[in-house]
Specification:
Blueprint: H1 25-39, H2 43-57, H3 59-62, H4 71-87, H5 94-109, H6 113-138, H7 143-173, H8 180-191, H9 200-207, E1 212-221, E2 234-237, E3 240-247, E4 250-256, H10 265-268, E5 276-279, E6 283-285, H11 289-302, E7 309-311, H12 316-323, H13 325-340, H14 344-359, H15 364-371, H16 375-389, H17 396-412
Parallel strand pairs: 5-7
Antiparallel strand pairs: 1-4, 1-5, 1-6, 2-3, 3-4
Length: about 425
């Protein structure tokens, strides 16, 4: 069994899950999970002991003037996320995410990285001893299987320690020097989703980016987007690293969010008066930038007006319609066929009324105020829409069909096209 300071590599798991010559993963994983379940209720008291060991062994944490005031709380959160990952595999990434946040925070606070790594290794060693002790006490017949579980535990400890060190380095040094011409081909390959997975570690090192992390992609298109052609390729804005990748029709922006919320990205990427933008969801690493870029393109297509940056989650129905315009056209024609056959002015008037009614949660009064007409006029238009489509807005499924068909109609006849609705879905035929 290896210690915390000079780890020796354990045999890798065989395809069945266990180490060569040992129990299979089917035997190892349950005992490790059981050990974690036994320990978890005692974590608050256990953490006090871990913190005591860290203070005694690491001079930085033992000094009351230097030691972070949130050490105990931070240690409990780190240990709880680690143990939770042993119990539930779907939560295995949580401890790494927290390790990255700790490394960044301690780096900004000036804590030495050696002290931070020493503390993580001490915590890992004490945690491993506690897991083994609980299995030996509660089910001694399963202690042998724990010897093969050591590889999993220390692999996770080493992974979290590496994330702590990398986040600390980036917090202290800031982003690497801007080298746009060298970085753009790599970013382009990642955004196209054409990067060889085997080369991702090389790409990560070249860009100075972590292979895994909270990334998002934004796409800007329009005259204002060209302003970034001569700007810096890499910027740090309020703790978020932005990587600008100008292209012929606009610019793509790769954002390393860290622990910042996606909702704050819009404030960091200004959109000009004649420019539109779309933002992806958060993805978990460089390998997923191609998917994020595709989502950002969908969000851009769903952007309702110039000067706006639209997250893909803000208009999911429109994004779905944009993803399959052929199906969108078929659906719009099937639901709204009789409406689409009307004279353009009458058609747009009915669709604009439906859009306003949906936007204001079914309030005919507020829809009328938006359209500058009486609520009775709104009611009359909606009744005519129901008669033409054979769908009742009082029925949830029918209302959902009409809402989806409205977005599909927007995709089929985008702003600027003949007889189109306006970008916000309220149309020009407002009866004003």
């Amino acid at each position: 069994m290896r210690g915390p300071c000079a780890p020796e590599p354990y045999p890798h798991r065989s395809p069945g899950g266990g180490a060569p010559g040992g129990p299979s993963g089917a035997a190892v994983d349950p005992v490790l999970r059981h050990a974690a379940e036994l320990l978890r209720p005692d974590l608050p008291v256990f953490t006090e002991g871990v913190v005591g060991r860290v203070r005694a062994a690491v001079a930085y944490y033992g000094d009351p003037l230097l030691s972070p005031p949130d050490l105990a709380r931070s240690a409990l959160t780190a240990l709880d996320s680690f143990v939770a990952g042993l119990i539930a595999p779907e939560r295995a990434a949580e401890s790494g995410e927290y390790a990255r946040a700790v490394g960044e925070r301690r780096g900004r606070d000036g804590a030495p990285v050696q002290a931070l790594l020493h503390a993580y290794r001490i915590a890992g060693a004490v945690l491993w001893d506690a897991l083994v002790a609980r299995v030996a006490r509660e089910c001694p017949e399963r202690v042998a299987a724990m010897a093969y579980a050591a590889n999993d535990v220390w692999r996770r400890v080493d992974g979290d320690a590496a994330l702590v060190a990398e986040a600390h380095r980036r917090a202290v040094a800031g982003p690497p020097p801007d080298d746009g011409p060298r970085h753009r081909p790599v970013l382009e390959a990642l955004l196209r989703g054409q990067a060889d997975p085997a080369r991702l570690p090389v790409f990560a090192a070249s860009l100075g980016l972590p292979r895994y992390g909270r990334y998002a992609v934004a796409v800007l298109r329009g005259p204002g987007a060209r302003l970034w052609d001569t700007g810096p390729a890499r910027e740090l804005r309020e703790g978020v690293e932005l990587y600008w990748c100008p292209r012929e029709d606009g610019v793509a922006v790769v954002a390393l969010l860290g622990d910042r919320p996606l909702a704050g990205l819009g404030a960091l990427i200004p959109v000009g008066a004649h420019t539109r933008g779309g933002v992806s969801t958060v993805v978990g690493g460089l390998a997923e930038l191609g998917r994020a870029h595709g989502l950002a393109e969908l969000a851009l297509g769903a952007c309702p007006a110039d000067g706006e940056l639209t997250p893909v989650g803000d208009r999911p129905l429109r994004a779905f319609a944009l993803a399959r315009p052929d199906l969108a056209e078929d659906f719009a024609d099937r639901v709204l066929g009789p409406v689409r056959a009307l004279r353009p002015a009458e058609r747009d008037e009915l669709l604009a009324t439906l859009a306003a009614w949906l936007e204001y949660g079914g309030s005919t009064r507020r829809a009328g105020e938006r359209l500058y007409c009486h609520r009775n006029t709104v009611l009359n238009r909606l009744r005519r829409l129901e008669a033409l489509t054979g769908r009742r807005l009082a029925h949830p499924r029918d209302a959902a069909d009409l809402a989806m068909a409205l977005e599909a109609q927007w995709v089929s006849a985008p702003p600027g096209g003949h007889g189109s609705l306006s970008g916000d879905g309220t149309g020009d035929g407002t009866g004003r």
